[in-house]
């Protein structure tokens, strides 16, 4: 679905143009065309391929979707895949934005994503001194918008981790904790598999040999990569913490089990002693003098409860009870 | 076993040719020969070595089989080993395709694999504008076909992983879960040991210094490598998830054991109290006044069951029962 | 908030100058200006940007804060972010110092940090032979001060680790130990996430291609990096030790549980034997000759206690009791 | 001990020569000398050093033994250490072959190894077209022979691993399994510590800058390295599998313990109920009407066994019994 | 404390010289000065800095101590820190040797180390053909002596590891084993943190770009690095083994616990049966015909012991007893 198709000159909007007219504007050389698609049909992509002269392999990747984040050079144009990640009902949903950038055009195709990028275009149109840097600035602006949307996800994960940490050392809801740790790990990994290849890809747009389109905007891409580094190191920290937390959880479970065992053992001992005394005087020997004593029974009761109590005190002191 | 032996010119089939005639066509220089073998005998390979002038070490590797995936340069020709992986009855079976590529020929030998590559040839013959790029395009087409067959395997592994994840947190079939996690890990490792070296090998066919044969088809090989990257990162994700799942599994088992222990302890306590009361009044002291009371027995029963019930309530509240 | 604004010439203080006058001094070329800010407001930063001609992206990073440690080149000037870490009540608090360095100026902005850097300026002013090396020496002096403050944190972590190690092998306070190990791990990770990127960043200031400003002061930055390496390897050692300690802790808990189990089993056995004897003679069979014996009861007691004692000795020998 | 000392020209044996004559042949320039030693005495090595003009450090390494696998250049000659690994009685024994290669000579010294390399010489002498490539071909042939002897060891380890995998999931012989896993891990590590440095070393003999002696035989060394890669990745796979197997083993032990615990708990419950009933009617209250009923006893028995049976059925259904 | 101060020419000792005279000899250019200090005071170091013209940063590092092993270039001189490790009472004590090397001098300062390096000087003076290679040979000789002292430590660790391995699979002294494994891990890590940075540092003295002082002695430093590699890979092997051993230990503890549990369960079952029988016949029902039988009691005893024995046999067969 076509969303926008606009020609820009010196950072200012020239006109909304027709799809048919794209190739004319692209050939003029003094302006550039910025087209935004959403969940484009093969036919639309084919039309765009024709108008912009896109490389067959890039178009094939874009129409198939489910690519890794990447930036590929085809002659003097770039094909870039970035991933948008959105949280719907405690699940991370991964969508994709495919961006074709040439000397005189930018074509973006958003797939499987609810959030649009209209704000990026609006902001760019308000900053003509930046927009006049051309298509590579648009590429930067789109990437920056995508990456900025990762931060709240990472923040949410960090909060979740902190909430879980407090619960690990309490004794309740252990089963729930481990399930939530596991779910958090999955989310971290989903985001990491989006961020890590993008980090490599953006790294090719500044520093050493850089595609000629991006030569003048290197500092911007270094900035994007820096944001990705920050996200990546936060994710690594969470991941590392989860691993430790699972280990610690196991230790805590073992410790608690040990405590329950000790308490069980202590009570078992106390009742075993009681039962032993009772069994003793429940025997049917003819000649058991204490049974005939007048105060035999109270004495027996005293003995039973005092041995029990002595044991109880001892276990209490040892920390078993 | 010889499957096909065809000469092509400008992307179009010239003729099915005789093995004897191969060297003539190879020497013509305006066409190329594409030979497909299957589980070739040493004699067949020797014949091919003679016709194509293959390098002795490459032929030795091909006749021995069980090589690592690799791409080796011998002068201006390439020797490439790729692995085909097929699922037979819940087992991954690894076969091999050895591909010799020279300026004017492609020779492939498929070993220990049920699936053929006739479709690759058919598709290539329908796209003469691509096929006329020569032997390196055929190499790409074969590799692409091999790699495309990895995707359904990875998808199946991901589904299996998801199925297992749901079961880890349920209490049933723990032993089966751990066996299936282990089996899945093995499969992931089998595929990884096929994909990782291939990733390195294909990386040599685009980017920096590239064998001269593949110079014009670099973008295709970058595409293959990109697919391999995608597979590789999916495999890494599954592998990482399995490791966590095994840890979590251990925690779940420990948790469940702890719960069983607590329940056991609770019931043991309840019955220990009952038994202690019964033991008390089972003693044979002469003078135990309560034994002679009229409502001694009902009173005793009430006491026994009310202490039991009080304990039961308390354990219930503590979550032990 | 402006803290200082001073111009230096040949290592000696020229004058405290007005913010307005900064650009005049910067343009003179024979002196340099060193400005220190604290938690600067956007307006202050904008003023500084104008006076020093700072790059927009760098200023944006500085005003947003929460950057990774980094050193970025913008033309012939540097933008550097270093992190200060302070311990407040058993928590590590991470602040930030943003440093802009140009051929004739240094501008530092300290954020979220209690400790000032007045000492750095004082020391520098007492060593004019060093200070006359210009802005890059100031950059070094600030970095060195920041890094020197990491050492006591690392020392405290090492002491904590040693204290914990002694406690792991004792039987007490296991739950507390594991909590403290976990908390220590968090601290180590916090510091590591500050040190590691800084290590990479400082590495760019000596050795290979070096920003021209730092050319003459390379040895100083090598020294800073060397300190960071030392901290980093200490942190790695602590981290590695914590991982092992958690594993060992789990082993110790399992061992102790095993010992409790054995003791429980031993006592249970002893009482089970007693109870069995008592049960035997508590049966109501008419004809049980031993019940009528004169010394039946003492004999029974002897038997009961001697079997118990024999068991006790045996368990003692086996190390269960 | 001297084993052979032969001069070769154009790939054909010239003559068995005297040790004294070595230097004469080495200086001729149109032939090369291939000497094989075994567990050479210092005196023999000193003699060889003199005849061949070997470097002092290399000779010192060779006489001390216990080197890491390595290939070192000394001027235009090479000193190579490779490790031979042999299985004696379920133990891996590591021996060493030190090889000195110069433009006109090869000197090998085999230490602490039972297997000889006579076959290598025999085969080389039967292939003069290969042998005439000179000393570097001999180096290749020796290395290839050494590496080929690693494969059966790896195969044996893989078989052992497969045998162990089947046993982990059975309930028997757990202690033996874990001991065998541990022993296997040791073997894998022994071989890995032989293979990994050799991989690095051989990598220097092909590809980038190559010692001039090996220039013409690069493809052969690439082949050796490829074999080493194959072994190395097999070893990594086994090692990875062992780690998982130990984890899984622990899970299996915990699971089995849990099952035993449940069964124990179930039986304990059944007997506790029985004992409670018996205790009830063993009390000595005067007025317990059911004791006087005619069918009191059979009724009691029925009650006791039916409650027990009901519990038994319930535990059976829950999978505890 | 000054230990020696000697001037050498052409590998032969010229004279023991005065500290004051050092600068004269250093300036002569045809000889070199080798000074050895021990735990030098700041004043001594300042004196040396003056005589030799040492770099301020290097002297500062040397006077502070506790540096990482490193080799740093300051103009045409080197500053090298190596660590000496000594075993005192089952503890590893880490000392330090700081070595300053210039074209005409070597200055070593040993700190916190009991062992001296007099032997190195003695040996060097007996080999003038080597010593005449100048200060870089002395640097090599000192490093070689330091590294040679690591080997017995590694050997002791390997022996300790082997001793521990045999004990893990026995059932005794589990707590002691885990403590010793932990202590061994600490020692391995101490040595590793000494060896790893030294490996990197020495690597800069041979191969690619080498400080001009060491140009002629590269092969020696390659030899030192090779020794360090050997030590490093041994340490890695021990470390890896310890990790596995701790895991295995946990498995063994769990296994043993499982066995104790089973035995406990078996005995509990046997006595529960006995107690149940006794409870049955201890009930006070009026009409219990078997109680009145003449052989009721012997029959009961027979029943009790035969059921117990049957259970005993069954548990024995199942391996629980």
Strand order of the largest sheet of chain A: 2-1-3-7-6-5-4
What is the helix content of chain A?
55-70%
CATH superfamily membership of one domain in chain A: CorA soluble domain-like
Distance between the termini of chain A: 70 Å
Structural class of the secondary structure composition of chain A? alpha+beta
Most extensive interface, chain pair and sizes: A-B, 57 and 43 residues
CATH class of one domain in chain A equals: Alpha Beta
Please report the number of helical segments of chain A.
11
Mean pLDDT of chain A: 90
Briefly, what is this?
The structure is a homopentamer of 321-residue chains. The first copy, chain A, has helices at residues 22-28, 42-52, 56-64, 118-126, 128-131, 135-148, 150-168, 174-203, 218-281, 289-292, 296-318, and strands at residues 2-9, 12-16, 32-38, 70-74, 77-88, 91-102, 105-111. With 321 residues, chain A is an alpha+beta fold.
Verbal overview:
The structure is a homopentamer of 321-residue chains. With 321 residues, chain A is of the alpha+beta class. Among the domains of chain A are: 1-131 and 138-147, 2-Layer Sandwich (Beta Polymerase, domain 2), CATH 3.30.460.20; 259-318, Methane Monooxygenase Hydroxylase, Chain G, domain 1, CATH 1.20.58. Helices cover 60% and strands 17% of the residues of chain A. Chain A has eleven helices and seven strands. In chain A, strands 2-1-3-7-6-5-4 form a seven-stranded mixed sheet, sandwiched between helices. The longest helix of chain A has 64 residues, at 218-281. Chain A is rod-shaped. The mean pLDDT of chain A is 90. Chains in contact: A-B, A-C, B-D, C-E, D-E. Chains A and B meet through strand 4, helix 8, helix 9, helix 10 and helix 11 of A and helix 9 of B.
